[in-house]
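Shift notes (night). Ran LUD domain-containing protein while the centrifuge was going.
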Amino acid sequence: MSREEVLRRVRAALERGGRADVDVPRDYLDSHGMDENPVELLARHLADYRARVHRAGDEAELAALIGRLLAERGARRVVVPEGLPPRWLAGAPGVARVPDAAGASPPELDAVDSVVTGCALAIAETGTLVLDGGPAQGRRRITLVPDHHVCVVRVPEQVVESLPQALPRLDPRRPLTWISGPSATSDIELSRVEGVHGPRALDVVLLGPGPQGA
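Came back to this:
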């Protein structure tokens, strides 16, 4: 069917009143009454997606942990989004900070070793991190081009159980980026290739009370 024919049928339906308002019931459950703690469920699903999950009880532990994660990657340059607390990088004094500049090109970002960000929230049921470009998150491209992403989730306040609980807390007008593990794809023979559409390595730090240690 041609494009013109599709548009003709749409116009004809609209002329017949096809745009009548329909009351859509929205009485679905926003929680499935899970027995598992949402933070622990998030950690388990992130690990299932091959993200590395770490814990930090306070920002002093966080700084030391981020310093170690960057050192393990041999990172010498890290993108720093606006609003990222400087103390988060206090454990990496020898790493050069690259600001999240509007004019940064993909090749320039590709030359950076890592990016450290916060997030807007995280969804336990799906193991998904959501970034909306707010403070400590930066522009979308800084979390898509560099090969290594360290993302900090404040727990439990930034963790929701389900997608229906997440949507009311998000502004659809903002540039939402949904991340479920490191970037990966598979060919027809199911050979997994990582780093095609985003970072090859994802480290998630759960910042807050709970079990400690990497």
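The longest strand covers residues 148-154. Helices lie at 3-15, 38-48, 59-72, 106-110, 163-166.
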